[in-house]
Amino acid sequence: MMHASSRIRWLNRTVLGIGLASLFSDWSHEMATTVLPTFLATMGVAAFWVGLIEGVADGLSSVAKMASGYYTDKLRHRKPVAVVGYIVTATATASFALATAAWQVLIARSCAWLGRGVRTPVRKALMAAAVTRQTYGRAFGFERMMDTLGAIVGPVSAFFLLEAFHHHYPPLFALTLVPGLMAAALIALLVRERERKPVAHISFGERLRLLPRAFRGFLLAVGVFGAGDFAHTLLILLATQKLTPSLGKAEAASMAVALYVVHNMFYAASAPVAGWLADRFPKRLVLSAGYGLAGVMALAIIFAPLTPWTLGGIFILGGIYVGIEETLEDSFCAELVTEEHHGMAFGTLATVNAMGDFLSSVVVGALWSSVGIQVAFAYSAALFLTGACLVQRATRGTGDVC
Asked: Fewer CB near the terminus (10 Å): N or C of the chain?
């Protein structure tokens, strides 16, 4: 049993600073992301540009995450890299205000996601270093909750600001600089980092080989699950299509957006609960249960009649499993790898997740378009349930904290 003081100590100024930074940073980029498609539409560009911008940005972010994790393990202090990453993301996102062509948005978005990729493994390593192994779950659950609150506040802010500015986009993009720079300031002022012993300079490949066998098994499970874990914007499309015959196009679209807000609320609420469970039960069991919930959600899409009520349940399940998945993947990663290699481990995990995000959304979207919803989500369900089994098999006996 842990003493009462250890229960309180996990929510220290570093964890609070990182959590608040996640909230403000997500607030900033969600404000921009919410209106970006319609902003591009005003330029008269094709849907191709939307996909290209997101694809290039995600690809650069993946490379940056891996490189940052490898590089920052060799530094005595990681915090300055995180601060710079937040500043780059904030300024690049705000620079959308200056764009007059799609290629300029592509460059700005790529720079923003490059900064985001650089800071992600560093932020997670700083978080893991600030708490004990017994409280990883609660710390990462708190950070995920704060990040998701930003994802709720951002679109709401964008809606009201767009109305206030009479659908004039540059002032809205410029205002994203305020919460974006607040995030950088919170990391700079609140996060405390003790000096650490850097790892010896060895090749990238050798560093990968040094990661524990159990961690590599964990990555396999994450990769298999991620290959089916489609972007939940597809749920918005699903709800819009299924509700349009009964509600009409405009009301169906509004209902789909409302369901997505509910999805994010359950995501925010489930993350700290998942963290609490992770610190009291074997992490592989909690993560496997989260992956299993994803499988239940996909099967519900296939077999349940898609009414407003059943779609509400599907969106809720989606929010809950994402809260469990993201909290447990981060806290389990921190537990499986020694602290000096946390940067490399978090960078590798983030890269595997990014590759899965890209693959899953492309495959599910292609299957949906070519052979129908049932096959598309059966593909996801199979990978979700396989991932749940692999977490159990690959990480059994890793000494989870109970």
From this structure: N
